[in-house]
Design a protein that fits this description.
Blueprint: H1 2-11, H2 17-31, H3 38-41, H4 43-47, H5 59-86, H6 91-125, H7 133-173, H8 179-199, H9 208-230, H10 235-240, H11 245-252
Helix pairs in contact: 2-5, 2-9, 5-6, 6-7, 7-8, 7-9, 8-9
Length: 253
């Protein structure tokens, strides 16, 4: 029995660590798209100026907030998983990617807190005896404004730096087809210009122009997720990567 078990273990094909890394990164990238329905889930807040007083349903807002927490964690996960690979091409870009992802995730959580605060005001304060309706409406509008401002910094501005850092690594290393990082590298300045225009009130954050400038970054991230999940890193590019620091140390010894 023991001999058979050892023989079976010996003949079992080993799983390529780089394939595990690419699969994990790809799945995490695809998970970051679960927040797309928030465009509709948050409609009760946007469609009802008196949401905080009880108008509309709060369940969609709670589900949207939950999905954004998942996105924040998955986004940080992509950076953690890809860091060991990315730093073999450029440690500076790899650190930049991790930093921007962590900032993005933290800001997303801040935005979620503002919406959860809005729901708490609705549930715990609005129905209380003697509640000041005017103050509640002002507080509700304030929390929504905080969410919109944080969204601009988190899910609109931070993807610019994500695309520049990881796009540079992927373009130089050829770990994925170059057309994919090109989408990110081209889309980054477009989205940055749109974010600056939104910040200074030149264009509407919900307008057609703003939505159009986000498309290249969205396609880059989704395509990268699909490619890494289905295909993984290109073997020739993996072989051409500089050895990891641990491997160099072991070789010297």
């Amino acid at each position: 029995m023991t001999i058979t078990a050892h023989a079976s273990a010996a003949t079992r094909p080993a799983v390529d660590p780089m394939r595990r890394t690419s699969l994990a990164a790809g799945v995490l990238y695809l998970i970051t798209f679960v927040s797309i329905p928030t465009l509709w889930l948050y409609s009760p807040v946007r469609d009802h100026a008196d949401f905080v007083l009880g108008a509309g349903s709060a369940s969609g807002v709670l589900w949207g907030a939950f999905s954004e927490v998942v996105v924040a964690l998955a986004g940080v996960g992509t950076a953690v998983v890809l860091f060991p690979v990315a730093k073999r091409q450029s440690e500076t870009a790899a650190l930049g990617f991790v930093t921007s992802r962590v900032l993005e995730g933290a800001l997303i959580i801040v935005g979620v807190v503002s919406l959860l605060t809005l729901v708490s005001l609705r549930n715990d304060v609005a129905g209380a005896a003697g509640a000041d309706t005017g103050s509640l409406l002002t507080a509700g509008h304030t929390q929504l404004a905080v969410y919109d401002s944080v969204f601009l910094l988190s899910q609109s501005l931070m993807p610019v730096f994500n695309a520049l850092c990881l796009g540079y690594v992927m373009y130089r290393s050829r770990l994925v087809p170059r057309i994919l990082p090109v989408l990110g590298l081209v889309g980054a300045p477009l989205l940055l210009a749109a974010d600056i225009a939104i910040l200074f009130g030149v264009i509407d954050r919900a307008g057609t122009i703003a939505g159009f400038t986000f498309i290249p970054i969205a396609v880059w991230e989704f395509s990268l997720g699909v490619y890494l999940t289905v295909k993984g890193f290109r073997p020739a590019a993996v072989a051409a990567l500089p050895p990891a620091a641990g491997a160099v140390t072991a070789a010297v010894r």
